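Re-run with default settings, no changes from the original entry. Doing this only to confirm the output is reproducible before filing.
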Amino acid sequence: MKRSARDEATSYEEVSSRKLLFTSRCYLEIAIAKRCRLHKLIRQRFALALKIQQEDFAMEMTSSRKIPAGSYSTSRRELQRYIQPVEDA
């Protein structure tokens, strides 16, 4: 049996519609993955800032001498000790 021009046009539209849907779904998955990675980095940065703040506060509380503001500097290696990987949710 021969297909009519109308049937062929309909099947072409269905195929192109499926391709578009697949492509859109792929872009959505990529966007979600990027957002999750960004949120992970934000959580890690916040956790690091909190650890540093707690360490500075504890040091001020236990220190018998006054440390002028800005004189305490932490090396990069010391900061890396406090970075803990955050697992993806």
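DSSP finds two helices and no strands in the chain. Helices lie at 5-62, 76-81.
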